User: Fold these one by one.
Assistant:
Number 1:
Amino acid sequence: MGRQSEIDRREAGNRLHMGRRRALAAVLVAVFLAGCSGDEADEYSAADTSAGQTVSVSVPDLSDVARQGGELFTANCSECHGPTAGGSSQGPPLVHEIYEPGHHADFSFVRAVETGSPQHHWNFGDMEPVPGLSPEDLNKVICYVRELQYANGIFTAPAGLAACEV
Ligand code: HEC
């Protein structure tokens, strides 16, 4: 075997190595993008939902504010988000790690209700704005959802219950 073909072989080896590294980089980028687009919700997609709530929610002793929020929730939100925010065939559970305070702060609830929320985490379609709730009402609704989340271990830092401090 001549010297030239030895060099050719080494270069071919190098190219193969580079190709593998590029493929690995592409995989890492894909994984990163999947993480950002909220694909973690896929396992809870609309196809999996039945007539009842998507997740079972245990209801704790609610504060007064949360209790009032619960009534508003039943009237305005439970049709899609389930009777105790555990989801339905029309909308996702809000007692879910996706909606913990660190990921969906209280203002994202305000925004969803006031301006709607285009489909992005699930397959239920868009959420339309929900009219008729004052800022105080909305705060009570958020308190209700937060107390349910807290009681069901979605988050542990009491700071997440800020909406209940009124
Ligand atoms: C007609 C059905 C429907 C009603 C009524 C409804 N929602 Fe929604 N909501 C949805 C759907 C569907 C989504 C999920 C959109 C997605 O991420 O794919 C959603 C998403 C949300 C989100 C997440 C927004 C975000 O930033 O990702 C919040 C918070 C929320 N709803 C709160 C509420 C509250 C509070 C009420 C009552 C005042 C309410 N929704 C009423 C269907 C509804």
Number 2:
Amino acid sequence: MRFTIPYADANPARITQGFHSEHIGLDMISRVTPWGQGVPLVAPERVKIVALSGDNYTPKNDWPLTKGFGVIMQGLESYNFHLYWHTGPVFPVKVGDIVERGKIVAYMSNSGRVYSGGKYVPIADRYTNKGTHLHWECFAKFEDGRKTGHMDPSQFIDWTLKPTYTLAEQVGAIAKTVLRLSHLMSK
Ligand SMILES: [Zn+2]
């Protein structure tokens, strides 16, 4: 079982930080939009949405931009769990959704502890989209509850497996995100 690439223009040259002992994930950037802001991130395999950080967003009680937003997915084609981090605060999916591989689950952004040129990007500068990237973590959890350590997602990616969402699905995901945002703001 191989993973679909996480967004449209993902390729090995877009890796900005690989997996190592002090970085238990894979960092990647996009060039689809300037700095990659808002680029749709897709499920790397058929997944169930386990958790969304940022789900409790409201204007008065937001999960701070400093902590970051992300989505946790349980792989349904493997025993892997996937975390996409530094995403935008609102998602086109909800907890419990089953998402086919290659379909949109979140948007690339620069929430949380992000760096640009090795320097922490102050919150006040986030509107410049500096530090926008995907941080992807992956580990396996078996039926008996045993867990592996974090693994390097890049070793399981098939770079020829592209996102499969259509333009209509992309528009639909944006509409769901906007509706969800208006719903959360009216709470
Ligand atoms: Zn990272």
Number 3:
Amino acid sequence: MRLNLIVSQWLRKTLVEAVADGKSGGNRPQSEFLDFLRFFRSWISNPLRVAGVAPSSDSLARLITSEISALDAPVLELGPGTGVFTRALLARGVPETELTLLEFGNDFLPGLNRRFPQARIVQMDAALIAEADLFADEAAGAVISGLPLLSMSPRKQEAILAGAFEVLRPGGAFYQFTYGPRCPVPRVILDRLGLDAERLGKTVRNLPPAAVYCITRR
Ligand SMILES: C[S@@+](CC[C@H](N)C(=O)[O-])C[C@H]1O[C@@H](n2cnc3c(N)ncnc32)[C@H](O)[C@@H]1O
């Protein structure tokens, strides 16, 4: 019942905004409805990589970026998709020039380049971060991950976490959301890498409801 309400409210909001987009001559920076269609199409063509039928909500974006400030720059975002978390990072005061967006999917790259022209946008598998030398000048203060870790092998998860903590400075944190009931990174991987995971919070204002974990060095 509650889920029905969330879905219908979300559909109503996106349709109203799509109509407003049309009336304003398409001047709005982003149409959630078109993003939904783009996302849904991408999910149809690659359900394991996209692992969600719709972009994350603003509520989840606010939660996953709630501890970030300009002091965390530069910031690395993994799997930005249509850029919901990217917009929230900008709202938290991180300059666009200090953002590195690492996205594997072809479908999302033109939209990211158009919306965030000053960000560094890299098309790459996040499992290869360690080899990419992306933060040679200054280590990152935070990594925000929209990656579908639950649909990845443990080996790939470990490569992503290990690579992320190689580019994170001391005290830096890795933020990950999940639709599951617990941290999507298994304890054995956290132990091997010397990491701890803490639940930052949960939101039911997302389709489906999601939780955010903050992973740090012990
Ligand atoms: C669940 S979607 C999240 C998108 C967006 N962050 C959001 O919350 O709406 C997962 C995103 O991760 C990207 N992705 C999946 N596997 C990846 C990988 N190995 N390396 C980089 N990006 C990947 C997908 O293309 C997609 O954009």
Number 4:
Amino acid sequence: MNRCSFATRLANAYHKRPRGHRFTSSSPSLSLSLTTDLVNRLSRVDSSSAPDLDHAWAELRWLTEHVLRRRTVKCWRPASQVPPALLSDRAVLVATIDGDGRGNDAGHSRVDPFSEAEKARLQRMVDDRVVRNKPLQYVLGSQPFAGIEVRCKPPILVPRWETEEWTMRLLALIEDHISTSVARSFSILDLCSGTSCISLALAFNVSRRFPDLNLSVTAVDTEPRAIALGLTTRRHLDLPETVRYNALQASVFDAGLKDRLKPLALDGVFDLVVSNPPYVTLAEWAELEPVVKDWEDRKALVGKVDPGNSSSSSSTLSHEADIAAGVGYYPAIARIAKSVLREKTNESLCPKLVVEIGGDHQTQGVSQILREELGGNVSVWTDLAGHQRCVVSNDS
Ligand SMILES: C[S@@+](CC[C@H](N)C(=O)[O-])C[C@H]1O[C@@H](n2cnc3c(N)ncnc32)[C@H](O)[C@@H]1O
């Protein structure tokens, strides 16, 4: 994968949008309204491409829903019960935002028009998008991910669709494994956990399917704000008592990490380790779009040489060392996995280690690292865009 397409892919996390028709000032019933103004402004968020009206309408709907969620008493219908389909009717959206009293009745559903304070709030959020180029997930404060709502706050990395895709794929394998296993407990370790999107989505979905299973998920990240965000998401999830969520502020390069981890697994050993570590090279970082560089933590994205193996700092690397630094986290991750994973006696349907990679250019190097450290068989998962996305270590 070349660097350009990599940069585009990261930026696409914010700009995945269908191309639609262009707005014309002759659109009926929309002239000179606040809604028209906001749609026009939102259609220009991505200044590198032509205005996108359909996406602007979709964003406006999400922002409006967000404002409505704050309502407690004033809504004829509780905000949490406003059906999304209602606001996807543009006439209802216009009536709600502009408060002109038209169009907000749809059958037996109704949304009260915005107050002045709510209009001001909506305008501030649109300013954040348009003027400050703030990612939508940071404006809304959350992102749906594999069935859960993950809290998002700058500068903690916004979960990407590729990660969600492989998490769902892994979930199916975990469920197959548990259905055919006699064990009544399962422990998952998530290294470089960020928002804890992977571990909490797995915990939520597995516990729904197997309510009697004892489940432990442990999220590890160096960044205290990531740990705090994971705990907030966990608090708002309806997880049963059978699920234990541990959030540990630590580095995968800490020599004593494995000794801190083992007591957090249910039987002192983990059944599965997952990781989406920083893997971007300095050259790739230089080409990323401002929306990524301005808002997301550089340390969440840029890989670095294992400090145990090199004295170079990641800001002074040669080209070759920069390429190597892109995969600098994987040896440490594989070593931790080796020291905390359960010794499998039978062939398992579930992998023992799944790591996300930056693309095809890292497959060979990471596969070799996993093979040397963990043995067994190594496979590669490709994402929906056709890029190699995960290297997976299996038992046999
Ligand atoms: C690419 S982000 C992934 C976040 C999350 N797992 C996801 O998929 O959205 C990498 C994360 O690794 C964390 N990190 C960076 N260096 C680390 C280290 N040495 N040990 C543990 N976590 C680290 C960053 O703070 C960041 O949250």
